[in-house]
Amino acid sequence: MRRRALVYGSAAALLTVAVVLAALGVGEQAGKLSDWQAFTLGVVQGATELLPISSSGHLILVPWIGNWHYLETHQDFNKTFDVALHLGTLVAVVVYFWDEIVHFVVAWFRSVAKRSIQTADEKIAWLIFVATIPAAIAGALGEETIETHLGNPWQIAINLAVFGVLLYIADRSAQDRKLEDIGLPTALLVGAAQAIALMPGVSRSGITITAGRFLRLDRDSAARFSFFLLVPIVFGAVIYKGLKHIVFGTLPAGWEGPFLVGTVAAAGVGLIAIDLLLGYLRRHDYTVFVVYRLCLAAAILLLIATGVKDATF
């Protein structure tokens, strides 16, 4: 109870700060992304990065629905703002799983120093490390291709539906393995699946949970392994994109307010999303998320078919 109170107290404080900053219009510049738009996208990022419903897809769909074209037409701002949003969810995961992450980091360095793997924590730490490699390579090599060719709403709708159905099927497979039962083949397969999530609409957490469930992990273990994998992959992405677009690039004008509001909002909502998902999975399956994905996919395709919205953005 004490931990939960701390989680929700921290989340409430972060969201209050984000709302106050947005209301005051801190750092906001006319004609650019507004603080309230940044707040909305931060909330979307915090919820959808950690739930199996695709953050990248939602971060395209929300501006598509709202006719917010600033990020679409200002790629320099879009790329650096993306770093800020992912930093927010990274903070949420690190704060929520602080004790576990410290154990794994210490265990990894301990095993490196001993040149051997002797404990369960050391084993899991190395498996997380190994599972991160496929997605890191795919992200570095395919970033430009994915951004150019795989972000249209109609494609997102198809990915939401297809990988939602896969999650439904996987969630009904046998489950007899826990986190400590994971071996190298399982880690590599889950890591390879994580690379697929570079396509908007797939969902990083969704595809890793799907792979874990197909590999017989119970719901809690599949979700926890997915969250642990988020730390190195998002940390690496934040460092890589931060260096590429911020340190060695030029920060776009009007970045201060939206970046701060978006990061804080994503962190606050991310804390709540983690706790709710883990609590929900102790009593339920993933059906509600599958239904949401299918309904959203149908709504997108209906908007396109009726001419209300264009198929591309």
Q: Can you tell me about this structure?
A:
- The protein has one domain.
- By secondary structure, it is an all-alpha fold.
- The longest helix has 30 residues.
- The chain contains 13 helices and no strands.
Lay out the secondary structure.
Layout: H1 2-24, H2 35-48, H3 55-66, H4 70-73, H5 75-96, H6 98-114, H7 120-149, H8 153-171, H9 184-196, H10 204-214, H11 219-247, H12 256-281, H13 287-305
How many structural units, i.e. domains? 1
Mean of pLDDT: 89
How many helix segments?
Answer: 13
Low-pLDDT segments: none
Residue share in helices?
over 70%
* End-to-end CA span: 45 Å
- What class, by secondary structure content? mainly alpha
* Global shape: globular
Beta-strand portion reads: under 5%
What does the main sheet amount to?
Answer: none
Radius of gyration: 19 Å
Number of strands: 0
Order of helices and strands: HHHHHHHHHHHHH
List keywords for this structure.
313 residues; mainly alpha; 13 helices; 76% helix; 0% strand
Entry summary:
This protein is mainly α.
